[in-house]
Amino acid sequence: MISAARRKILLRKYSVATWLIIFINIIFYLYICAQSGNFLTKIIQGPGYDALIQFGAKENGLIASGQLQRLFLPMFMHANLVHLLVNMFGLWSIGRIFEIIAGPRNFFILYIVSGLTGNFCSFALLPQMSVGASGSLFGILLCLFIIQKYEERLSKQFKRPTQGMQFGTVLFVNVVLNIIFGFSFPIFDWACHLGGALAGILFGFALTTRHKWNLKFILSSANSKHLKKKFFERHRIYYIGIFLLNVLFLMSFFNIKKYQIIYGIAIESASENKNNVLSYDDLSQYENILVSQNEETNPENMLIGAVYLHSNGFYFAAVNLYEVLLTLSNESFGSEKFISDETKRILNLAIDLAKSDKRISPEIENYVEKLSGHLNLKSEICAKPAALYMTLGFFQISGKLYECAYALNLKNEDYAQKALESFHLADDMNGINQILSLVKIANLH
């Protein structure tokens, strides 16, 4: 073992692997921030959800769709500056010690192995997106803790003083820091910590068991050639244990649902969408395009389409379309007749009926017959307007319209994905949950 004075000298001179990993984490964080907008602001606040998704964060649906790099990259990614500093402080405080004890090669191996195991465990147990070096950090911490306990046992056996490696305290401090950070930010991933810790424990047993066997062999009698290893003295079984642990976690591939994959693809598309998010206040400047130049987005034509859907029993789709039209009418978007109080009354009445799965009333049919518009093909009633509104950046409206289109054609999962993408960009969690429920129901049949 290494004396305390000797360890301090070595910490100052030899910690190349630790500093290299820290450097990679910092550079990757700065690079993602540089690609995400205002560089200085992003450094402090973090690159943001969409940027993390775009650059490889752990997201179960995307992993299940084949993007396996998302099981590797998150161990070098961080949500914000505080997240980065907490993890890099932990890595600096214990990585250098581990590197001196076990060598830079074992440090690199353990960082990668515990990071992967942490992400595999997170993939198996937690659905939400996550990033961070915490899995690797907990792996190194627990591995050092096993080494400390082994060193204490040896010191007691040979009646020598211990080296005073109080990793229990270091472990406690890092656990507390991560828990505090976890309550402060929603990115906290206990499953990643658990997976990394389990890998670290097994790796620690492998290192100490190998050392113990070598020591036992050296100290044995002249008949050492007849010395036989017991099962748990074979250090390779612990490496096999790490492998089997990861296989167990990866069995969750078979439990990933279709809706999770669709949602993953949707948020990835949203992260790459460069359109500006427009509000209802911006509608007026596009009135010529949406009312005069395009028949499928003319509100009166859309109202005729909504009544057609209602009359033919497509109640859920009709409700979505009615609600979009009521929003447009309330925003004074469209002809004078369409934005009148009478149209608003008719739309509210139609919404109540459709929500109750009740047939359309003659009053509504008579009112719509007096409109100057005409009916588009059923397949175009929601889908075509949705595409144009999404292209322009009215994502709240396009989300509702794509949800309407999906309700009319549950086999077209592209509509569901576009609806989720739109609601994500509009930051509408109610819309996301509603379309996800619809996708789940559709995949039951």
Automatic annotation (TrEMBL):
It comes from the Bacteria. Pfam families: Rhomboid (PF01694). The chain crosses the membrane at residues 14-32, 75-95, 107-125, 131-147, 167-188, 194-215, 236-254. It is a multi-pass membrane protein. Keywords: Hydrolase, Membrane, Protease, Transmembrane, Transmembrane helix. Residues 66-208 form the Peptidase S54 rhomboid domain. The keyword Transmembrane helix applies. One of its GO terms (biological process) is proteolysis. GO terms for molecular function: serine-type endopeptidase activity. It is found in: Membrane. Gene3D superfamilies: Rhomboid-like. One of its GO terms (cellular component) is membrane. Its main location: membrane. This is Rhomboid family intramembrane serine protease. The lineage of its organism: Bacteria, Pseudomonadati, Bdellovibrionota, Oligoflexia, Silvanigrellales.
